[in-house]
Design goal:
binds flavin-adenine dinucleotide, alpha/beta, binds iron/sulfur cluster
C-alpha cells in the first residue's frame, strides 16, 4: 500500500481571548443549572483521557438534565465554542480530550429511565454506568451484551460514542448492534429521535424540510452515492470499528440513523438519551482454559474453538503472565493457568451449569483427540474462575508500568483482522515489532480477531516519535492487507484518524467527510478527531511533559521520581467505580472527578508541568484536590498502575507548608505521641478538658474538630506504664488453666529454644520463607499510640494471646513512635526523624531478628511503605520492614493460630492498610480459626482515616464514606454479633456513629481463649 503523507486538517481555532472565555463562562452560568467550571484545576483535570494525548479544554459543564445540555450547547453555539461530550473519559485513542467545552454526562445525567422486559429494551441517559444498566437488566434475566473491561465505570454514552465491544461481543455483537434509537441534539440546536427509518418515513422526513429534512436528504444522498463502495470496501469482519458506520444507512440495514451514529465519537451530535437493546443473559457459565506452546498456536486454534459456540473467547500471552508476576498481580489466578505459553479463555453459557459444562467437555474431547492438543483446565469453582478472569481483565494495567522495563503506551491498541487470519497477523505483527525493537504483550478478544497490545514506543524524542509514526503506518498496512480494521473497538480518535486513508479509498474518506458535514457543518463537534484529524504525533502528553526538578523527601524507587509518579496514571478510571472495593472512597462519596485518584494524579502532573497550574507546590487547586484524599492507600493496591496517592499527598503537603505554619490541628493530631506522653501523667485532667462542655467545645473549635465528634478519651493508665511496672494485665490471669498456660510459657521463655530448633517456632510450627529468623522466641510488641494511650485493653489482650502461643513478650524500652499521624499532615521531616530514632534504638533487636508485632495496621504499614521510601537502600530498614508483622500475620507465619471453638457470628471490617500493605488473608485465617461465622464487608474505607473524619471540613464526607456500606451493615448486625476491626479510626467511626462495641482481633482471640478455658462457647448479648 502506498504511503500517504501526514494529513492534518486543523479544526477552526476557538477565540482564545481571556475576555471571551470569561463571557462564555458567565453566559453558561446564567443558562445552566449544573456546575460550570472554568478554573485552571478543572480544566487540568479534563485535559486527557486514557490515551497518549493532552489538550486543555476551554471549560467544563456538568449538566443537570437534558434541558441543561440543550442550554449549554446553545451558549456554545452563540460563542462558536467547540463541544466535547464525555462519559468516564476512558477513551484510548484521544477522542475524549479537546480544546472545547466539555459536557460531563457522568455527573448527573445517569438515569435508567425504563427497562421494558417484554420488548427487551432499556431507555437510559448517556451518563449511566454500564454495570448499573446490566444489574437492572439482570433482574429480568436480560443484559446489555457488549462489555468493555471498563464495564464497572464506563458509560453508555461513551460506549455509543466509541462503538465499544467486550468479551461477550462474540455472543451479542458490538454496541452498534445493540442500539435501537437515540435522542440527539445537533450543534445548531436540532433535537430528534433517530433509529431505523423505513422508506416512507425517510421520504416524509425529507419532505418536512428545514434542518431535519436537510439532514435526512444529506444522509440519503450519501447512501445513494457511496452505497456500493461501502458494500465493496468495508471489511466483512466482526470488529470493523474504524470510520463512520455508513453501512447502517444501506437499505439492507434499514437506514438505521441511530446505528450509523454509533462510533461517531462525539464528532457529529450530542446524545441525550438512548434506547438500548437487551439480550438474554445465560444464567449459567463455564470457563475452560486452554494452554498452547505459544500465542500464535493459540490464535490458530480460534476457528476450531469458535465452532463450539462459546459466548466469550479471549487470548493472553506469556509476556502478560510474566509482567503480572513481576508486578505481583493476580498471583492466585496465575497459579491456576494450565501449562503453556499462550492461552485461550473459552466461556460457555447455558440455562444450567450441566449444559454449560457439557459444551466445554465436548470441546475438550474434540481437542484431545488431535495431535498437539493444548493443556486444558475446566473451572468449576466460582472463586477460582474469578481469579483467572482477573488475569485477563487487568491486562492493560499489568502491562503499563513494569518494573525495570521501558514504559508501554497505547498507539497500536486494538486492530482487528478476520479471526481465521489471526495467527498470521500475530506472527507478522511480532516480526514488525522486532524490526523496530519494540516489545509488547499480545492479548485480547481473539474470538473476533481483535488484539490489544501496549508497546514501548519512545514518545519523547523526535526520533522515537518518528519511529512510532512509521511503525503504526506499517502496522496499518499489514492489517488492511489482511482484510482487517485498524480499530477493532477503541475507535479512531486521534491515534487512528490520520491512518483512515490507508484503510479506505479517497471516495470513502469523502463520504465520511460528507457524513460529518451533514450533522456538523461548522466542525464544532469534537473537531480534529476521527475525520479531518489532528496528526497522530501532535498533542502527545509525554512529549509535552517537561516537569520541574524537585528535591523530594521520599525516594521513588518503583516510580523513578515524583515526576514519573505523576505520569503513572494512564487514565484507566478504575478509581471511578462505585460498586465495590476500596478505591476511591472520596469519589464514591462525592462523585467528582477531582476526588478520584486519577484526578489527583492529573493535577500533580499539571502542577509539575507548570503550564496550566502555575503555582507549583503552592497551588491551592492541587491542595484542594488532595484535601479529600483519606490516605487510605487503597489506590496503591487497587489501581492497576499502582498509583500511591497517599505518599504523593504527604510529599505535596510537605512542600506546600515549607516555611509556613500549619493549622493548629496538624500539631494536635500529628504529634499525638507527645500529647499522649504528657497525658500519661494526668489522664483524668486531660479527659476533663477534652470531654466536658464547654471546654470540649472550645478545644474542638480551636482544633477545627467537627462539633459532632467526640474526642477519644485517654485510658486511666497507658499500656506501656502498666507493662513496665510489671503489672499483671487482668486478662492474663482469669483462670487457673490460663495461669498454668502462662507458667508454662514462662518456663519455656527461661529455657530458651531447643538447640538447633527454629528459635521462633513453637514445636509444631513452620516459618514461611519470608518470616524473620529471630535468635530467640522473644517478640517485641509495638505499643502504638492508639492502643497504648487510648485502648490498652487491646495491647493487654495481645500479650495474653502471644504468651498463650508460647512467646515471651517485651516492648521497646524507649518511647518510640512510627510517626503515622505525621504523614497525613505532610510533616515528613519529623516523620523521618521518628524512623531514625527507631532504627537507632532497635538496631540490636532488628539485627537479632526479633519479630516486632503490631496491632495497628496503619503503624505496621509505615514500616512496610513509608520507611522504604525514606531509606530505600538501608539494609537495617529493609530488615525491619520484614520483621514488623501484624499480630495475625505473625500468628500465621509462626503456625500459632489458636483453634477456638467459638460460637456466633462476626462482621469483619478490614482496615484499608491491611488490604493495601499487610496481609488481609492472614487476618481472615485467624478469625476463621476462632470458629465464628464471618461476614467480611467489602466496605472500603471507614471514612475516619486517622484524623480526617474528626476534622470539621471533612466530617460530612467522612460520614458519607462510612454510610455507604460499613455503618448500615453494622447497624443491621444483631446485637450479639461481634463487630471486628483492627484500626483505631475504624473503631472510632463505628462506635461514634452506631454506638456498637467494636473488637480488635486480639480481643476476640483473648475472649476465645478465656472461653475455651472456661469450657463455654456462648456469650452474652452486647
Ligand atoms: C483499561 C481499559 C480497558 C478497556 N477495555 C475496553 C474493552 O474491552 N472494549 C472496548 O470497547 N473498549 C475498552 N476500553 C475503551 C473504553 O473504556 C470504552 O470505549 C468505553 O466504552 C468508553 O466509555 P467512557 O464512558 O469512558 O467514554 P468516554 O471516553 O467518556 O467517551 C467516549 C467517546 O464517546 C463520546 N461521548 C460520550 N458521551 C457522549 C454523548 N452523550 N454524546 C455524544 N458523544 C458522547 C465522547 O466524546 C468520546 O468520543 C478500555 C479502556 C481502558 C482504559
Ligand atoms: S489513598 Fe485512598 S482516598 Fe487517597 S486517592 Fe488513593 S484510594 Fe483515594
Amino acid at each position: 500500500m502506498a504511503t500517504h503523507p501526514a494529513s492534518s486538517v486543523a479544526p477552526p481555532p476557538f477565540h482564545a481571548d481571556a475576555a471571551v472565555h470569561r463571557a462564555l463562562e458567565s453566559r453558561l452560568r446564567q443558562s445552566v443549572r449544573g456546575e460550570v467550571r472554568f478554573d485552571t484545576a478543572s480544566r487540568a483535570l479534563y485535559a486527557t483521557d486514557s490515551s497518549n494525548y493532552r489538550q486543555v479544554p476551554i471549560g467544563i459543564v456538568c449538566p443537570r438534565d437534558t434541558d441543561d445540555v440543550v442550554a449549554a450547547v446553545a451558549v456554545c453555539r452563540e460563542f462558536g465554542a467547540p463541544v466535547l461530550s464525555r462519559g468516564a473519559g476512558t477513551s484510548l485513542a484521544g477522542q475524549c480530550c479537546n480544546v472545547a467545552v466539555v459536557l460531563d454526562f457522568s455527573r448527573h445525567c445517569h438515569g435508567i429511565l425504563a427497562v421494558d422486559a417484554a420488548r427487551r429494551q432499556a431507555r437510559v441517559q448517556p451518563g449511566v454506568v454500564l454495570d448499573r444498566l446490566r444489574d437492572e437488566a439482570e433482574r429480568v434475566g436480560l443484559t446489555f451484551g457488549p462489555d468493555p473491561a471498563t464495564h464497572r465505570w464506563c458509560t453508555l454514552g461513551g460506549m455509543i460514542g466509541n462503538n465499544s465491544c467486550g468479551v461477550h461481543s462474540v455472543m451479542s455483537g458490538k454496541t452498534d448492534d445493540n442500539i435501537d434509537e437515540l435522542d440527539i441534539l445537533t450543534y445548531d440546536g436540532v433535537r430528534m429521535r433517530v433509529g431505523a427509518t423505513p422508506p416512507d418515513a425517510l421520504e416524509a422526513r425529507i419532505r418536512e424540510g428545514g434542518r431535519v429534512g436537510e439532514i435526512y436528504a444529506g444522509l440519503a444522498r450519501i447512501r445513494d452515492r457511496y452505497g456500493d463502495l461501502v458494500r465493496a470496501q468495508f471489511p466483512k469482519i466482526p470488529r470493523r470499528v474504524s470510520g463512520y458506520n455508513l453501512d447502517f444507512l444501506l437499505p439492507e440495514s434499514g437506514f438505521n440513523v441511530a446505528r450509523a451514529l454509533v462510533g461517531s465519537e462525539g464528532t457529529c451530535v450530542t446524545i441525550l438519551e438512548a434506547t438500548a437493546r437487551l439480550v438474554p443473559s445465560p444464567p449459567c457459565r463455564s470457563l475452560l482454559l486452554l494452554g498452547f506452546a505459544d500465542i500464535y498456536l493459540a490464535a490458530d486454534a480460534v476457528g476450531d474453538v469458535t465452532a463450539a459456540g462459546p459466548i466469550g473467547l479471549e487470548g493472553i500471552d506469556e509476556l502478560l503472565v510474566r509482567h503480572s508476576r513481576k508486578k505481583n498481580l493476580n498471583s492466585k489466578g496465575l497459579a491456576l493457568l494450565p501449562d503453556g505459553q499462550g492461552w485461550l479463555y473459552v466461556e460457555f453459557g447455558a440455562d444450567t451449569t450441566a449444559e454449560a459444562e457439557a459444551q466445554a467437555t465436548r470441546l475438550m474431547a474434540r481437542l484431545e483427540s488431535r495431535p498437539g492438543a493444548p493443556s486444558m483446565r475446566l473451572f468449576r469453582d466460582p472463586v477460582e474462575t474469578q481469579h483467572v478472569w482477573a488475569v485477563r481483565e487487568s491486562a492493560l494495567g499489568a502491562t503499563s508500568f513494569v518494573p525495570g522495563e521501558a514504559k508501554n503506551w497505547e498507539g497500536w491498541e486494538d486492530a482487528a483482522v478476520p479471526p481465521a487470519r489471526l495467527g498470521e497477523y500475530l506472527r507478522r505483527l511480532r516480526g514488525l515489532m522486532g524490526e523496530f525493537h519494540y516489545t509488547g504483550s499480545l492479548y485480547g478478544h481473539f474470538g473476533q480477531g481483535c488484539v490489544h497490545t501496549r508497546i514501548n514506543f519512545d514518545l519523547k524524542s523526535a526520533e522515537g516519535i518518528a519511529a512510532y509514526r512509521r511503525f503504526v503506518e506499517e502496522a496499518s498496512d499489514l492489517v488492511v492487507g489482511l482484510g482487517g480494521s485498524i480499530s477493532g473497538e477503541h475507535g479512531d480518535g486521534q491515534s487512528r484518524g490520520e491512518l483512515l486513508p490507508r484503510m479506505y479509498s479517497e471516495d470513502l474518506m469523502q463520504a465520511f467527510r460528507e457524513f460529518k458535514g451533514v450533522w456538523d457543518p461548522g466542525n464544532k463537534m469534537n473537531p480534529g478527531k476521527l475525520v479531518s484529524p489532528y496528526r497522530l504525533d501532535e498533542h502527545l502528553r509525554v512529549q509535552q511533559y517537561h516537569p520541574a526538578e524537585v528535591r523530594t523527601h521520599f525516594a521513588y524507587p518503583v516510580e523513578g521520581s515524583l515526576a514519573d509518579a505523576a505520569m503513572r496514571c494512564v487514565g484507566v478510571g478504575k478509581c471511578r467505580k462505585t460498586d465495590g472495593g476500596a478505591m476511591c472512597p472520596s469519589y464514591m462519596a462525592t462523585g467528582e472527578e477531582q476526588h478520584t485518584t486519577r484526578g489527583r494524579a492529573r493535577l500533580l502532573f499539571e502542577m509539575l508541568q507548570g503550564e496550566v497550574v502555575t503555582e507549583g507546590f503552592r497551588s491551592e487547586a492541587v491542595k484542594d484536590a488532595l484535601d479529600l484524599c483519606l490516605s487510605c492507600k487503597s489506590c496503591k493496591s487497587e489501581c492497576p498502575t499502582g498509583v500511591d496517592m497517599a505518599a504523593y499527598k504527604a510529599e505535596f503537603l510537605a512542600h506546600y507548608y515549607e516555611g509556613r505554619r500549619r493549622p493548629l490541628r496538624s500539631y494536635a493530631f500529628g504529634l499525638i505521641n507527645h500529647w499522649g506522653a504528657m497525658a500519661e501523667y494526668a489522664p483524668r485532667l486531660a479527659n476533663f478538658f477534652m470531654q466536658t462542655p464547654p471546654f470540649s467545645s472550645a478545644v474542638k473549635w480551636a482544633l477545627d474538630v467537627a462539633p459532632e465528634r467526640r474526642l477519644p478519651a485517654f485510658a486511666a493508665r497507658s499500656f506501656r506504664r502498666e507493662f513496665l511496672a510489671g503489672q499483671k494485665p487482668e486478662a492474663r490471669s482469669q483462670t487457673s488453666e490460663a495461669r498454668s498456660q502462662k507458667q508454662e510459657a514462662r518456663s519455656r521463655k527461661q529455657e530458651g529454644p531447643a538447640p538447633g530448633a527454629d528459635p521462633l517456632s513453637p514445636p509444631a510450627s513452620r516459618l514461611s520463607p519470608s518470616a524473620p529468623s529471630p535468635q530467640s522466641r522473644r517478640v517485641l510488641l509495638w505499643p502504638d499510640c492508639s492502643n497504648n494511650y487510648f485502648h490498652p485493653e487491646v495491647a493487654r489482650a495481645a500479650v495474653a494471646v502471644l504468651e498463650h502461643a508460647g512467646f515471651a513478650v517485651d516492648i521497646p524500652r524507649e518511647r518510640l513512635c512510627c510517626g503515622r499521624p505525621l504523614y497525613d499532615h505532610g510533616m515528613l521531616t519529623a516523620a523521618k526523624r521518628r524512623l531514625v530514632e527507631i532504627l537507632e534504638n532497635l538496631r540490636g533487636e532488628i539485627e537479632a531478628g526479633t519479630p516486632i508485632v503490631g496491632l495497628e495496621p496503619s503503624c505496621i504499614s509505615v514500616f512496610r511503605d513509608e520507611m522504604l521510601r525514606f531509606f530505600p537502600d538501608d539494609p537495617l530498614a529493609r530488615r525491619l520492614s520484614q520483621q514488623a508483622l501484624f499480630l495475625t500475620e505473625f500468628l500465621v507465619k509462626t503456625g500459632t493460630v489458636p483453634a477456638l471453638g467459638m460460637q456466633g457470628r462476626a462482621v469483619v471490617h478490614p482496615h484499608c492498610h491491611e488490604r493495601a500493605s499487610l496481609c488481609l488473608d492472614d487476618d481472615l485465617v485467624v478469625l476463621k480459626a476462632t470458629g465464628l461465622e464471618l461476614t467480611v464487608l467489602d466496605a472500603g474505607c471507614c471514612g475516619m482515616a486517622g484524623a480526617f473524619g474528626f476534622e470539621r471540613d471533612h466530617y460530612d464526607v467522612s460520614r458519607a464514606v462510612g454510610e455507604r456500606v460499613l455503618l448500615p451493615a453494622v447497624r443491621e448486625a444483631p446485637a450479639e454479633t461481634y463487630i471486628v476491626t483492627n484500626g483505631f479510626s475504624c473503631r472510632e467511626q463505628i462506635t461514634q456513629l452506631t454506638g456498637r462495641r467494636v473488637w480488635h482481633v486480639a480481643e476476640i482471640l483473648e475472649e476465645g481463649l478465656a472461653r475455651s478455658h472456661r469450657g463455654r462457647g456462648s456469650r452474652a448479648v452486647r
